[in-house]
Known about the structure:
Layout: E1 2-5, H1 8-20, E2 25-27, H2 31-41, E3 45-49, H3 57-66, E4 75-79, H4 84-93, E5 97-100, H5 105-118
Parallel strand pairs: 1-2, 1-3, 3-4, 4-5
Helix pairs in contact: 2-3, 3-4
Amino acid sequence: MILIALSEAIFSKIKKVLEEHQYKYERVESGEELLERAKKLKPQLIILEKDLPLLDGFAATLLLKSHPKTKDIPVLTICKCDFSEERIRAKDSGADLVLLYPIKEEEVVEAISKLIKNK
């Protein structure tokens, strides 16, 4: 199961890919909800973006990677801006892989396959 915390625009593109490849997923609305659900569900993968309400994606990733129950869950971060600082912050917070928006379907499939396989 994949836990997702993305804006509607990005989620609509990801959702299509997930459904075509029959991945089970749950979507959450905020960084705080993401942390709660991740501890409870222990998903195979988390997909998030920086701009989350209540707790941004970088802070959420840092907290996920520092908690014993969630530290081994791979995190795929989707960055809306092609700023090297944003990619660096995503990696520094613990993201396992960073994709730039707009994303291509094959990039998403490849990233999900790689992160779930490596788990």
